[in-house]
Amino acid sequence: MAVEWWESPFQRKSIQHWMKVLDLNGKVLGRVDCIGETVLFVRQRFSRKLWAVPLARVERVSGRGVHVAGREREVLEPEAGRKHMELVTATYPLAEPPYTKLEAARHVGA
């Protein structure tokens, strides 16, 4: 029986500041500097340069970090001033489906 990601204790339910960003092979691309509306802003170790990773490329979020689809440089895009054009935050909650077991239990008891 497959366990959905929101029921698994091993999957995180939000992306947070300074989490590791890992590519398809598990290589660390950098750490989350902040999260915009459409991209993750990633800072590599010992560098002031920011890179952008589209949120559409995020596959899953685990205790190790944010796993993105693709390999190394194909995932990273130049930041190009986008940080100043987007609303940024330090925490990005992942969407949960509207109907979960907890919600179902609440409606049965009501």
Précis, in short:
With 110 residues, this protein is mainly beta. Helices cover 12% and strands 33% of the residues. The protein is built from two helices and nine strands; from the N terminus they run βββββββαββα.
The dominant shape is: globular
Helix and strand sequence: EEEEEEEHEEH
Low-pLDDT runs of 5+ residues are: none
- The structure class reads mainly beta
On the 0 to 100 scale, the average pLDDT is 81
| Biggest sheet overview | 7 strands, mixed
Relative helix content: 10-25%
Count every beta strand, where a strand is a DSSP E run of 2 or more residues. Answer: 9
Estimate the strand proportion.
25-35%
> Please, how many helices?
2
Strand order of the largest sheet: 6-7-2-3-4-5-8
Distance from first to last alpha carbon: 29 Å
The radius of gyration is 16 Å
Give descriptors for this structure.
110 residues; mainly beta; seven-stranded mixed beta sheet; two-stranded antiparallel ribbon; 2 helices; 12% helix
